[in-house]
Amino acid sequence: MSQIIRIENIRKTFGDHIGVDNISLNVEKGEFITLLGPSGCGKSTLLRMIAGFENPTSGSIWLDGENVTELPPNRRAINMVFQDYALFPHMTVGQNIGYGLKVQGINKSDIAQKVKDVLKLVDLSDKIDVYPQQLSGGQRQRIALARAIVRNPKVLLLDEPLSALDANLREQMQVELKSLHDRLGLTFIMVTHDQTEALVMSDRIVVMRSGNIVQAGDPLSLYNRPANAYVADFIGTMNLFPSEIFQQDNKLSASLYGQSITLSNNLKNTTGGQQMLLGFRPEHARIVLPGSEGSDAALSGRVENYLYHGSTIRTVVRIGEGTVLIDSLASDGDSPAFIAGQEVMVSINPDKVLPFNMEAAS
Predict the structure, then answer these.
(1) When you count CB atoms within 10 A of the terminal residue's CB, does the N or C end of the chain come out lower?
(2) Selecting from 3.30.420.40, 3.30.1490.100, 3.40.605.10, 3.40.50.300, what CATH number does the domain 3-234 have?
(3) How far apart are CA 281 and CA 134, in angstroms?
């Protein structure tokens, strides 16, 4: 793949507030990249600077080898799908999609053909004469996408495009949006605070915090090898606990709420005597009964509660002064395998325990 977007040392300030702090980022042609982070992290500001709606305080933005930092939005081969879709209520679907082409001065017959082609692409050919208010939320989303891609942009920007949809429709649109991207081969840059959207759709995720990029990588790498506790806790669910590392019988061990666990000897940059933050995913531990096989190497605890998630059950187990979350497959029965108040043992996979610096957690 070749580079389509190059962002060099971009900085944006609003008075004394730093919105984006000296960010550099390259985006490849055909890539689906997601800017992920909480409100106020700078992701939407960065997207608006790529689009041309905000001018950077310093730095440069390059599109397909051309410096577009000073160019207005209409002179960049970039289109944007807004959170509220911004469809004209007094225009039909066909008129909405063709409006940008009309402004460009393209003749009517070419506009009609392009509109027809793009409606077929989003599977809404029968809605060409319908008005936006007659469409469902998912259909309006697809019309907004059709309007954005009909002009053949080099890059499509998506500003939290699924946030207005209900849960079931949002999940359906994740699949459709990813499928559309794969069919078009177009570069997508999406902004979201929803980790599930980012994990499901992205080729690469850029995690942001306080105007900076904290970590960038493919979804699997970010989930399994987060750079710090902030990323670990933002991507998926992570049990995090402060711990002291110590040597025991020539093995690395760690304290966990007054008890100890054995760590993998392959744990990088970890030695006895360190104060660290340790973490493990809920699916990397299991609950066993006291006295059963494997319980001798487990931690004692008490079930506090459980959360039924359909195919999985998340059990909350109190260990000393803290709690851990443990995910397991739901059984075929009508009740969970463990009940609140039950004494249990928690066995953690030592190869899945991750070490983090304490200061990265806050």
Answers:
(1) C
(2) 3.40.50.300
(3) 44
Per-residue pLDDT tens digits for 161-211? 888 788 888 888 899 899 999 999 999 999 999 999 999 999 999 999 999
Closest CA to 353 of 270, 296, 236: 270
Neighbours of 100 (CB within 10 A): 16
Side chain identity at residue 296, one-letter code: D
Other CB atoms within 10 A of residue 85 CB: 19
Q: Read off the tokens for 179.
A: 């499928």
Q: State how far Cα 334 lies from the chain centre.
A: 34
Domain 239-361 bears CATH identifier 2.170.150.20? no
Query: What residue type is 5 in one-letter code?
Result: I
Q: Looking at the predicted structure, is the pLDDT value of residue 85 above 90? A: no
- HEC readout, 73-127: HHHCCEEEECCCCCCCCCCCHHHHHHHHHHHCCCCHHHHHHHHHHHHHHCCCHHH
Residues with Cβ within 8 Å of 168's Cβ and at least 6 positions away in sequence, in order, are: none
Location of structure tokens 């106020």: 40
Tokens read off for 283:
């699916």
pTM: 0.90
Spatial distance between the Cα atoms of 352 and 334, rounded to a whole number of angstroms: 31
Structure tokens at 47: 């997207």
Nearest-CA neighbor of 238 among 283, 207, 280, 196? Answer: 280
* Residue 291 burial by Cβ neighbours in a 10 Å radius (0-12, 13-18, 19+): exposed
Q: Where are the domains of the chain?
A: 3-234, 239-361
Question: Is residue 98 scored above 90 in pLDDT?
Answer: yes
pLDDT above 70: residue 91: yes
pLDDT in tens, 52-67: 999 999 999 999 999 9
Cα–Cα distances in angstroms (integers) from residue 24 to residues 27, 211, 305, 358, in the given order = 10, 12, 45, 27
pLDDT for residue 299 is more than 70 = yes
